[in-house]
Amino acid sequence: MNGAFPGAETPQGRALFEELLWVHSVVRRDLDTVEQLARAVADGMPGELLESELRELKTSGPLWQLKVNCLRYCRFVHSHHHAEDVLLFPTLRAADPAIGPVVDRLETDHRRVSDLLDAVEAAAERLTAADGADARAGVVLALEELHGHLLEHLDYEERHGGPVMRRLDGIPGL
């Protein structure tokens, strides 16, 4: 029975949880990469190098990389959370109604993370439109806010959603 909640871990449930852990590891890794780029920009590059990078928009330029990586990263997290909202969370609720408050918090977290991702995207856009100390600080601040909330969310989801997920025998629609 797809989505059933047996008493013990199932191979399908364990595989689903392992996939979630893998996706979360990618989210964590990429967040670290984007933050390193933001710190390099915030620490300041020589002015002429910065001007050259902005003029040429080289794919190897730090500002261009920051913008592209921020946008790619934000889209990836948005997509992952949408899939959880549509596929995983309804299955968890059906499998174990007691998990309702956990899923409620995860859904609230997703809305907050979405807002924070939008702020990161906007800050990256401002940085390439008009570089300056304020734009640089804006990227760093947006990423710091995202970092704190997103990592807390991932940890909470793994800790509180994982036990139910590991007992599923599949997700309807997958």
Would you list the SSEs in sequence order as H and E?
HHHHH
Flag low-confidence runs: 45-58
Class per helix and strand makeup: mainly alpha
Distance between the termini: 13 Å
* Portion in beta strands: under 5%
Mean pLDDT: 80
State the total count of DSSP E strands: 0
Shape-level CATH architecture: Up-down Bundle
What is the CA-atom radius of gyration, in angstroms?
Answer: 19 Å
Which superfamily, in CATH terms, is the homologous superfamily?
nmb1532 protein domain like
Count of separate DSSP helical elements: 5
And the CATH topology? Four Helix Bundle (Hemerythrin (Met), subunit A)
* Biggest sheet descriptor: none
Share of helical residues: over 70%
Shape descriptor reads elongated
Overall tally of structural domains: 1
**Name of the level-1 CATH class:** Mainly Alpha
Description:
Helix content is 80%, strand content 0%. The protein is mainly alpha-helical and 174 residues long. It has a single domain (11-165), classed as nmb1532 protein domain like (Four Helix Bundle (Hemerythrin (Met), subunit A), Up-down Bundle). Helix 1 runs antiparallel to helix 5 (133-165) and helix 4 (100-129) runs antiparallel to helix 5 (133-165). The longest helix is centred in the middle third of the chain and has 34 residues, at 62-95. The protein is elongated and about 55 Å long. The protein starts with 10 loop residues before the first helix and ends in a 9-residue tail after the last helix.
